[in-house]
């Protein structure tokens, strides 16, 4: 049988645990699936007059990389329209960037003179360490009087807004939310400008300037193409908020998604059964390369904000409550989805949150479609490690969170707040693997760096790959290159219930491939981070990429 496509390289690497190499150098593809893997004989046996043959001399064919945790729609819109505050380590630097954005717009748009519908300055990746104590918007008012400024913190679980935003929206600090969200108030009872957790943040987002659908679709498509150029052929979008469906359909109306996208809608904390029913109904939604599968829960918030759920309070007396006020309702919701064959992914950062999620999964079991998973798992005691494998729970980890949001000397906000003992039990990638846990690696983009080569290198080094002078965080938790790449190939396939069709180069599997200029297993982590991606293949459709450096 002649095939549609034959891809030939110097080597094929599946990142199996056993280090033995095969002599295979070619992959035959027909109807979007791999039909044969072999050597040059495939060219004689499978190539016909209509077969497309691609040659990549010296290159390595790998299973397509999958980011197991990303937020492509709101992330692309936020990054495409907001002010990037990444790397701004002081409040003066933050304000300088805001001033630069205002200068770009011109003085006519600044201040109260622009009227009640005047322009906002929105930003992302704000480092809370720039504030001396709890973040407050009053400092923004002093520098930019009357300007509505809304800055999303690096963990994307809070906003710092100026008094102009507080006044424009009419925030009072007396707002009541279903979950543990809050409009933080000061000693005088007035809002400080610190808006904590998602439901409170939505009050602000509702007043952001509208982004036209065509603009949103362009921003998302551009970002997905950038991801493909770094080696990704798929990603798990752990959200499906508006305008996600409209954006994906708009992209496919005029073209094709360059990667596969598996979407898991958020089940809001303390939501009722009608909301669960609506999320369950979304499971039938799909396009050519995107589909809805699974449900996302947020059992707690983040340690940096004091909204994670630990067994014991942090040094400020916080990080001691779940985001779901009614934990019994969370338990009921997980059972609801499990009984309907829908897998769940639970955001759980603190040890109490992780323990509770494991307890609930132990009670409900897994749906047949895919295993339940727990995301982040930032700090856990020894006794929880074996429970993941015993219960068959996938651990979703983001290597760059450990390497770029914390420091080895524990002077960062995360480490200071939770204390040295819990910090020492953080980011336990090596320990989880040693306990036989399936560990799926992701970026949490735009919170983390979206280039998978960066995450894969950081996971091996336990420090930023581009900062050789930086001391590693928990160096005992380093993993090998083979383990890292398996965490972005085989593990995401297991997490999606697709291990029989994704994550390997083998007959019968979908033809999702990443073509690396060099075999990653022959390179140092530093070299891997700059290993050119020559092409990606999704379902037999080829995208060629010019060699490029790491991207954020």
UniProtKB/TrEMBL annotation:
InterPro entries: Amidohydro_3, Metal-dep_hydrolase_composite, Metal_Hydrolase
GO molecular function: hydrolase activity, acting on carbon-nitrogen (but not peptide) bonds
Residue ranges constituting the Amidohydrolase domain according to the UniProt record: 58-543
Keywords from the UniProt entry: Hydrolase
Keyword Cell cycle: no
Acyltransferase recorded as keyword: no
Protein name per its UniProtKB record: Amidohydrolase
Species per Swiss-Prot/TrEMBL record: Streptomyces subrutilus
